[in-house]
Amino acid sequence: MDALNQTRVTEFVFLGLTDNWVLEILLFMAFSVMYVLTLLGNVLIMATIVFTPRLHTPMYFFLSNLSFIDICHSSVTMPKMLEGLLSERKTISFDNCIAQLFFLHLFACAEIFLLTIMAYDRYVAICAPLHYPNVINMKVCVQLVFALWLGGTVHSLVQTFLTIRLPYCGPNVIDSYFCDVPPVITLACTDTHLTGMLIVSNSGTISLVCFLALVTSYMVILVSLRRQSAEGRRKALSTCSAHLMVVALFFGPCIFIYTRPDTSFSIDKVVSVFYTVVTPVLNPLIYTLRNEEVKIAMKHLRQGQVFFMKSCT
Predict the structure, then answer these.
(1) What is the number of other CB atoms lying within 10 angstroms of the CB of residue 260?
(2) Which of 13, 127, 150, 297 is a plausible cystine mate for 52, CB 3.0–4.6 Å?
(3) Low-confidence winner among 149-153, 210-214, 226-230 (lowest mean pLDDT)
(4) What span, in angstroms and rounded, lies between the C-alpha atoms of 279 and 281?
(5) How many angstroms separate the CA atoms of 177 and 277, rounded?
(6) Which CATH superfamily is 17-312 part of?
(7) CA geometry: angle at 178 spanning 268 and 243, to 5°?
(8) Whole-angstrom Cα distance, residue 191 to residue 195?
(9) Please, are residues 275 and 255 in contact by the beta-carbon 8 Å criterion?
(10) What whole-number distance in Å separates Cα of residue 258 and Cα of residue 34?
(11) Cβ burial 227-252 (10 Å sphere, 16+ → b, else e)
């Protein structure tokens, strides 16, 4: 054990997205703008929902939680990535690397569970509207959100344990721009095949099962829309299409990365950009541009007429 402690890696070196200095500057400017838009867009959605009484419903309660998770999720990787784009040597300490992958999996898993819950919420609202107030109320919403954070914490603890239990004595170069379990465990000084299989059985299964549940719920919703009025179909399709866009952008990369043990592709870094950078900035655009209620609420919020909306409706 003493010998292992003496040779343990104390820091990791990122290869980053590219070694082209000009491209790094361009990426820094582009990602900086996207990160600022992510923060501003999601904070605006949260503020709009909090200060608009008519939006105090389960659907918008979940949407505000999604915005909060997106802020946290992007903040785990983006600041370090932006710092790396301006640094010749991109490093992170061992402890900070472990912390980064812990919070990465915590917020990613929480978002997976939340998107699944949001699909269930839409399923009940569209397919069983008369039972909706009893099935989905604010008490149930709070319980579901507590459950998703608990599930995300357990998942993240498992991933972190699988990572830190391995010995790291060199090399210390990670072919990525952030710490994640798959690229980190490949640097371990031992056979990681079993650990890789455990990762797939954990992360991969969660992503795949939740994705299949989401697809199934939306298929049921689409079938049930035949019994809806034209206006009902339009509103339901608008809401569901927004959810499906988010699901495709987030679940696609997760399934691609976490269902392949002991395998890595050069495209992995590009795919990772989608769920760590692109999805958090697109969520506010998707949910606001396609949602008339949110757009109207934002207009009233900007005009200082938030609480007037309740009496108008």
Answers:
(1) 16
(2) 297
(3) 226-230
(4) 5
(5) 12
(6) Rhodopsin 7-helix transmembrane proteins (1.20.1070.10)
(7) 65
(8) 8
(9) no
(10) 25
(11) ebeeeeeeebeebbebbbbbbebbbb
| pLDDT > 70? residue 171 | yes
Q: Where in the chain are the domains? A: 17-312
Task: Name the helix (H) or strand (E) containing 82.
Answer: helix 58-85
Cβ proximity of 11 and 93 under 8 Å: yes
Spatial separation of the C-alpha atoms in residues 258 and 301, rounded to whole Å:
41
Measured CA to CA in angstroms, residue 168 lies from 13, 16, 65, 92, 149 at distances of 13, 21, 37, 14, 30
For the record, the structure tokens of 225 come out as: 């829309």
Q: Strands of 11-14's sheet, edge to edge?
A: 90-93, 11-14, 173-174
The dihedral through the CA atoms of 224, 227, 231, 234 has a sign that is: positive
- Read off the tokens for 27: 């990426």
Q: Exposure of 44 by Cβ count < 10 A (0-12 exposed, 13-18 middle, 19+ buried)?
A: middle
CB distance 163 to 180 below 8 Å: no
Q: Using N-to-C axis directions, what is the helix angle for 292-302 and 279-289, rounded to 10°?
A: 90
**Which amino acid type is present at position 120?**
Y
Dihedral (Cα; 54, 35, 272, 29), 10-degree rounding:
150
Burial 91-115 (b: 16+ CB within 10 A, else e): bbebeebbebbbbbbbbbbbbbbbb
Q: Is the pLDDT of residue 216 over 60?
A: yes
d(CA 156, CA 108): 9
Q: Tell how far CA 195 is from the center of its chain.
A: 23
All residues at 6 or more sequence positions from 17 whose CB lies less than 8 Å from its CB, including other chains: 24, 27, 81, 85, 177, 269, 273
When the pLDDT of each residue in the chain is averaged and rounded to a whole number, the result is 84
Q: Which of 283, 100, 263 is nearest to 179 (CA)?
A: 100
